[in-house]
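Interim report, section 4.2 (structural modelling).
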Amino acid sequence: MQMGIVVGRITATRKDENLVGTKLLITQPIGLDGQVLPNPIIAVDTVGAGIGERVIYVTGSMASRAIRNKDAPIDAAIIGIIDSLEGTTLGG
Amino acid sequence: MQMGIVVGRITATRKDENLVGTKLLITQPIGLDGQVLPNPIIAVDTVGAGIGERVIYVTGSMASRAIRNKDAPIDAAIIGIIDSLEGTTLGG
Amino acid sequence: MQMGIVVGRITATRKDENLVGTKLLITQPIGLDGQVLPNPIIAVDTVGAGIGERVIYVTGSMASRAIRNKDAPIDAAIIGIIDSLEGTTLGG
Amino acid sequence: MQMGIVVGRITATRKDENLVGTKLLITQPIGLDGQVLPNPIIAVDTVGAGIGERVIYVTGSMASRAIRNKDAPIDAAIIGIIDSLEGTTLGG
Amino acid sequence: MQMGIVVGRITATRKDENLVGTKLLITQPIGLDGQVLPNPIIAVDTVGAGIGERVIYVTGSMASRAIRNKDAPIDAAIIGIIDSLEGTTLGG
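Predicted structure of the assembly:
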């Protein structure tokens, strides 16, 4: 999984029928210090996340386990809201 | 999923038989501001996308859920046309 | 799999129900010389790893094999603690 | 899928028994303008591709759909020969 | 699949029980000219590879097809020893 921050929401009228009713959030990966990393992704929200919240997201085929519709073609899902983060910055 | 823009179309006479009849679109990932990112991919169109349109695409094994032929060896599919995008640019 | 070092822990009250009870560790990939590489990930601990320990982690759908709950939407798991590493640095 | 150009062939006597009889081609990803991108991969040829040809290749678990042997541990396969490519270069 | 060179071996006493008995080799990807690329991975050896040998390795869920234990959480496996490589360097 990765740490991310929700930065936007996408509207798409014409889409795969299995995506109807999903909330599609634009999420950018973040580093340990909260710095925003490049390459935003679109993730299906499964925990009621909002813009500006720091979240945990899963990518690849495992993302589909987070939603009820087992036919939906999704490769990213938000599966948690980060409360806190205890850690050490080691650089890198 | 990722945001992309359709930039071209590929013709291939000699190909896997399960790809016959698919529309193969060259799609480049885009960032929040619409800027085009490197490394175009080839995605199977499932929503009637055209060149120049901003789309949502899925990659990996989940892409195969977007098409009817469950034997097709595909790892990318366009699954939505972006109407609008509300968001905040956080840099990165 | 990749070599990593555990650098932190994440707390998330609101999360996928299949993640309840898992220990979510922030792990950074490391190189042959132990140098820390960018892009930390969040991995489910399955071997009792602690902060500062060098670990082996697996990513993608195979990570879910490391935990008992086969419905959990996880894409990274710590599956070993590195005792020692014999090798040659070839640069790169 | 990605666009690539076949640049070589690999011979391996000692190999997984499910790879016996496969043709393993070194393929480099290419961009819209045909420029060669870094990081060559090894793909199983399924369409009779030759060195110098521009091809479509699929990666990940879906690659295994392109071959008959469903036990073969492959993560990349050439599934088409590019005839032509109509498109617009948008930079990136 | 990718071309790599075996550069080391990892010992891990505390590990997933399905990894017991596997040989875990640190492998670095290599380019066409044999130059070593960054980001070493840990791969399960299935062909008797040794340090310094040039190998073919597979990543992702397909790697698990190369070993007998179908419950092992592995995402990389060495599946061939490179005898020779005929090719053209196109740069990139």
